[in-house]
Amino acid sequence: MQATDFTPELLDDPDVLAMQKWMDTQVDSQSVSKFVPGPGIQKLELKFDINELRKALDECLEREAFMGDLQDIGFAALPLTQRPGQTEWTSNDLSGRYWLRADDRYVEEPREDLVPEINFSEFNPKFKGTYFEYVHEELTKRFPIGRTRVLSKGLYNCNSWHRDPEPRLHIPVISNPGSLFIVNHHVTHLPADGSVYFTDTRGYHTALNGGETRRVHIVAALAYDQVTE
User: Fold this and answer.
1) Among candidate residues 179, 148, 153, the one with its CA nearest the CA of residue 70
2) In the predicted model, what is the mean pLDDT of the chain?
3) Measured between alpha carbons, how far is 156 from 73 in angstroms, rounded to an integer?
4) CA–CA distance, 219 with 109 (Å, rounded to integer)
5) DSSP per residue, 201-227
6) Is pLDDT of 11 > 90?
7) DSSP β-bridge partners for residue 208
8) Domains of the chain, each with CATH number or no CATH
C-alpha cells in the first residue's frame, strides 16, 4: 500500500486561529539574559565595583562562614548589619516575617515574627574594613537601611512564593543567566555587574536559581514604614 500525505481538517474556532498565530511568532531567546525593568523591579543609578564586591565576599567568608548553610534546599545568610552590640543571631533574625498562600486553600498566612528593620543600624564589626562596609555607608547616605545580608542560593532551587513587610535592594555579586527574580507577574535576570536593583518585595515574589553555579546577592532591607498585615 502506498503511503499518502494526510492533513486532518481542523476546526475553525478561536483556539485554532490563536495557535496558528503563536506558531508563526519568533521566540525571543536573547533578552532573557539581560535586565528588563518592570513593575516592582527597577535599576538605580548607583553602581559599585563588581571586582571589589567579589573580593570582599572572599574576605568575609575567610572570617565567617555562612549561617544556616542550607543552600541546596534554600539559602544561606551572612549578616552585614546588626542591632548595636548584637553577638548572636536567631533564625528569625536571618529571615523574618513573611506572608504566603501555602496550599490549595489559597489562604494567606503569616510566618515568623516581624523584625523591626530600623534596629539593625550597626555594621557587623567582623567585616569592618571590607568593601562591603563602604557599600553599606553609601547606601545609608541615601536610604534608611535595615538588615543587610549576603544571601547565597545553591543551584536548581527557589524561594517560597511570598511577600515581605518592606522592599529590598539587591546587589548581585555572583550570578548566572538562569538566576531570576520575580515580583508579581514580572520576571527578569539581575546581572552581577555592580548594579543596584530596587525590588518591591511587598508584592508577591520569589528568587530562583536555575543555573549551574551558586547565586550570591547583597540584600538590604529598606527601613521605611513596614507593612504589618
Assistant:
1) 153
2) 93
3) 9
4) 24
5) TTS-EEEEE-SSS-EEEEEEEE-SSPP
6) no
7) 158, 180
8) 37-84+113-222 (2.60.120.330)
Helix, strand, coil share of the chain (percent; to 5): 20, 30, 50
What length does the chain have?
229
On whether the CB atoms of residues 150 and 58 are closer than 8 A, the answer is: no
Q: What pTM did the predictor assign?
A: 0.92
Assign residue 95 a region: left if phi > 0, alpha if psi is -120 to 50, beta otherwise?
alpha
Q: Which of 77, 204, 96 is nearest to 149 (CA)?
A: 77
Residue 71 has pLDDT above 60, yes or no: no
DSSP annotation of 67 reads B
Question: Does the pLDDT value for residue 74 go beyond 70?
Answer: no
Residue 4's CB is within 10 A of a number of other CB atoms, namely 5
Instruction: Pick the closest to residue 151 from 70, 210, 62, 224 (CA basis).
Output: 70
pLDDT tens, position by position, 91-150: 899 889 999 999 999 999 999 999 999 999 999 999 999 999 999 999 999 999 999 999
List the grid coordinates of 103: 496550599
